[in-house]
Amino acid sequence: MRLKQVDVVEQIDPQDFKQKYYDPKIPVVIKGLAKQWPAFKKWNWDFFIDTVGDKEVGVYNNVKSDSYTPINTADAYMKFGDYLRKVKAGPLDLRIFLFNIFQHAPEVIQDFSWPDELMPGFVKKYPMLFVGGQGSITHMHFDIDMSHILHTQFIGRKRVLLFPFEEQHKLYRKPWEVLSLANFAHYQQDFDYENFPATRLAEGYELILEHGDTLFMPAGYWHHMEYIDAGFAVSLRALQGSLGGKFKGLWSLFGMRGIDTLMKKTAPEWWYKRKKEQLMAYAQQEIKKAL
After folding, report:
1. Cα–Cα nearest to 165, from 185, 186, 137, 140
2. Cα–Cα distance, 249 to 232 (Å, whole number)
3. What is the DSSP string of 131-155?
4. Residue 206, class by beta-carbon neighbours within 10 Å (0-12 exposed, 13-18 middle, 19+ buried)?
5. Please, what's the largest Cα pairwise distance for the chain?
6. What's the angle, vertex CA 74, arms to CA 167 and CA 96, rounded to 5?
7. What pLDDT, in 10s, does the model give residues 42-87?
8. CA proximity to 16, closest of 112, 113, 119
9. Domain residue extents for the chain
10. CATH superfamily, with its number, for domain 2-290
């Protein structure tokens, strides 16, 4: 993998943000944005246990999905407070994503502000909470709704790999899915380049998010995340401004996902084999181009 560092700024002028990052779809870390929020000091494990600890949530382990697994299917369910107590206790390979905590505790929305000055189109009904125990992993994927994301990390550190959408075939994207066939878990020590050689050509970014860091992740960006420490993050999503960008998100949500789920239920082995042959052919084309 050909990786470089993401630009890091303390604050940024909205016009500079638009010209340097939003329009060209380049990621950036803004370290000072969340420091202005009450959440920066207020939000911790005990706060969430007390606020919404009785709500049931789906939890996800580190096992990558297979040919039988529909997108976003939880591995188990438990009370949010019980899960957070486990997270506090030590390493835990379970995570929570797309949890709309604000639906259950609307008052929490007062603890942060929407940075409308940076970009338009925020989906203000759906700020989402992501939580992971130390050692948990979010496998390589891109967000199915194709939104721009401001992802703010709290408490722990998180290692992030980022790639533009256009690198999809070098990353062995499964056709009709948002996932990579390759396993990037602990990629620094042990990545399977022998079976996924095109990944050597993928050009992207590597970074570590710390408490209060906000990552701008442009629409369609591939991302893999590893929780160095237990922690949580909030994602603020903004729709793309163009009609084409909005259509891609709608198609992925209501067309592509539905077809893939149906085929996984009706002909999982054939469907998996067909997709794997196709993605390997695409990857080989990328290798030939490079040669």
Report:
1. 140
2. 25
3. EE-TT-EEEEE--TT--EEEEEEES
4. middle
5. 58
6. 75
7. 999 899 898 888 888 777 776 666 555 555 566 778 888 888 888 8
8. 119
9. 2-290
10. Cupin (2.60.120.650)
